[in-house]
Amino acid sequence: MVAFADRHIGPTEAAQRTMLDALGLGGAEDGPTSPVETLMRQAVPASIYTGPEAAVAESRIPAAASETEALAELRALASRNTVRRAMIGLGYYGTITPQVIQRNVLENPSWYTAYTPYQPEISQGRLEALINFQTMVAELTGLSTANASMLDESTAVVEGMLLARRASKSSSNVFVVDADALPQTRAMLASRADALGVELVTVGLAAGEELPDELFGVFVQYPGASGRVWDPTAVFEAAHLAGGLAVAAADLLALTLLTAPGTMGADVAVGTTQRFGVPMGFGGPHAGYMAVRSGLERQLPGRLVGVSVDADGKPAYRLSLQTREQHIRREKATSNICTAQVLLAVMASMYAVYHGPDGLRSIAQGVAGKATLLRDWLVEAGAEVVHEHFFDTLTVRVPGAAAEHAARAREEHGILLRVADADTIGVAVDETTTFTDLHRVALVFGGPTERAFAFVAGVSVALPEALRRADEYLTHPVFHAHRSETAMMRYLKSLSDRDYALDRGMIPLGSCTMKLNAATEMAAITWPEFAGIHPFAPADDVQGYLELIDQLESWLAEITGYDAVSLQPNAGSQGELAGLLAIRGYHHANGDAHRTVCLIPSSAHGTNAASAVLAGMKVVVVASDALGNVDLDDLRAKIAQHADELAALMITYPSTHGVYEEQVVEITTAVHEAGGQVYVDGANLNALLGYARFGDLGGDVSHLNLHKTFAIPHGGGGPGIGPVAAKAHLAPYLPSHPLAQRAEHFGGYTFDGAVISAAPYGSAGILPISWAYVRMMGADGLRRATAAAVLSANYIAERLGSHFPVLYTGENGRVAHECILDLRPLKEATGITVDDVAKRLIDYGFHAPTMSFPVAGTLMVEPTESEDLDEIERFIEAMIMIKAEADAVAAGRWPADDNPLVHAPHTAVSLIAGEWTHAYTREEAAYPVRSLVAAKYWPPVRRIDQAYGDRNLVCACPPVEAFA
């Protein structure tokens, strides 16, 4: 049987020998180590290098399992979870995922293996799906503009608070929080406000309690966590009179029946789209949302899809106003949001496309009607239902007996109710709730054992007449055109055909690790025992999840050299924030609250600086030297300058420049001697696994990107998971959660730090992917994957170095898992820009490498370990051919303004429509290499005018006439 590692790692042994020969290491087999180990010894500094024997000795990671064995173990873990009818609510609901969406989106690599749409010409399908999402959210919330998704509801509320603070005319630090807000949201607001100096004031808004005299914003839950539906218009008006902004967290399904928050005067609406066909998954991933009124578009965090035009003047989608994003603004950023939840946003948008406004309204009527029927049955049984008006959630008063009622519902009827307090039960109805479920709930409260009744959906709902929605929504044809499964399937196929994902070819993006997401790793995420679990289900019902989490925490701790791991952060950026807040908590506990300076190298990821600011720290930039390493002299100077207030150093290892810094231990020692802590950014862990550990480098805390190193798909910019790992002294300050099933984590640690995600274990629904990856690779397989990635990157650097200078290398002339190709000399010699090369690569059938990061005018190339030698050679050939084309421009064969590079990419229409007047031939445009004739990817649009889209901001579905 072929080992899984051999399926995962692209280059065969024979291919690796060929690559090693090109690196001059073919004869190394005669030495004491293998050629691959010789390469790794050349690349990895001796001071941190771990030999193969030590790397796997006494490992907690079991020997590699086969794919069949891993699935069997996952089945055993899944069997320890009990799937009950969850009627807990609190932002998480049972929902029906249409099979046409599950099969053609969630389980389709054309969607889940795509990258963030920074190359819009080859991302038109995903961008259209996200425009649908934005349109859906904007129209349901009654606001002008929505972004392309957030991480979850609670983080979206925090972002709403931050937006209100920067957009408000008030100088106050007070933010008013609805007493009926979701408990996890209140906890997260408290954590984040503390670091930012925001004063939270909790007010019973529905009860008519008065607002403070001064505030910069007010937050309302609509409907409330208790289920109560009321009119917050007066509260929004009062907030405006005080100079503040009004933020509403609204249930989108309820908004199909209720007046939209924008109509009532809200400036910002936030929430989750989970109940639009996305399984609960023990907490995620789910697409949060944010929408704003006109005038606040440039304040929106996250990504915003807009409409522009291509070179032929045809409509085309692209990311708008990117200068707002954290990776550009760095320490001036107002948000550190990086990974969105694109795959889940696509699912939610397609749920709306498939059902349309009438279908969504019918689902909502059914939910509200069943909730009203349950109210009637409970009142008939003598129970006290607290609120007169509600959508889907009832609060039932049972003095002193709440726990008993909940226990009976669970044990006798398989139903999970929410114990709000000793006297109060919460019951939430959703799309999946049956009449049998309602009857069983009524039985718990003393209702009759038998019942005869007739029910027609929508006959009776407990919504106030004044708040019944009267306006139309989702009027665009896309929400009316795909009712049959045939039509929906074809629509989804047409969109995926416009995209480029890993199922088409290599995505050689430096810093992003677009590796294989194996089908076996993905298999378990749709099993009901993982997908159908509420994040606040009792511990006894989630023993399989808790064991999987415990195992994964232990494996990640070993891999990184740390003592404790939290899986709560649901993006790398949130893991960064969690790690920095842990450092902040540590310093405060030691009486060092004055330590607020965070040193960050100039080459660092953009989220680093943004995360530091949101953790309440002051960013001080450290220069890089000519080799791309941290400038030690400047580091020492900055440490001396800020010694008394030094909180932390953030450093990426291997560096963002794609090299292993030789002096890393010297760097971390210098910071520790000054009383600071060391944060090692784990974005490039794919170049380190099995060969060195962050904890051994001197790291105190790190985040890891499970969506990069550990095989969770990017999904076009989400889902992501960014666990945070730390040494024992920082463990107490790792993320906590008020609704966690247990306090203990691997190693016996109890965390008491900031709440980072809405759910206790973040996006736990996709943890089986990384669990399966580690389980099937084993410690040895992980080490082999690292070596294969480094070998492939060095092979590309060697083959292309004579055509494009490799900007940075280590002391032995080697790179890590990625290399930076310098295209600035090409521009000087030929006039061809890095943009021209990136767009021309599309004609060759490739997604471009990372452009102009971390150095403008360069391409950062990362082949990963998953790409085989044939695909790597195809990329190398394309780059060499493009260099020759640029040289032809310089030589005068083609004019500077009329050549295949400046007009790239070429669509099929551009080649056949009208008379061909270019200086180059159609064949040179479309088929620069003969292999493309058999399998050509045709981009759907030509080069997009980015500036036009920002000048003419349109972020909702354009009319059909625009495409005529």
TrEMBL record:
Name of the molecule in the record: Glycine dehydrogenase (decarboxylating)
Keywords, comma-separated and alphabetical: Oxidoreductase, Pyridoxal phosphate
Molecular-function annotations in GO: glycine dehydrogenase (decarboxylating) activity
Cofactor(s), names only, from the UniProt record: pyridoxal 5'-phosphate
General function of this protein: The glycine cleavage system catalyzes the degradation of glycine. The P protein binds the alpha-amino group of glycine through its pyridoxal phosphate cofactor; CO(2) is released and the remaining methylamine moiety is then transferred to the lipoamide cofactor of the H protein.
Family annotation (Gene3D superfamilies): Aspartate Aminotransferase, domain 1, Type I PLP-dependent aspartate aminotransferase-like (Major domain)
Enzyme class: oxidoreductase
Any Pfam family: GDC-P
Positions of modified residues (N6-(pyridoxal phosphate)lysine): 708
Reaction equation(s) it catalyzes: N(6)-[(R)-lipoyl]-L-lysyl-[glycine-cleavage complex H protein] + glycine + H(+) = N(6)-[(R)-S(8)-aminomethyldihydrolipoyl]-L-lysyl-[glycine-cleavage complex H protein] + CO2
Origin: domain of life: Bacteria
Gene giving rise to this polypeptide: gcvP
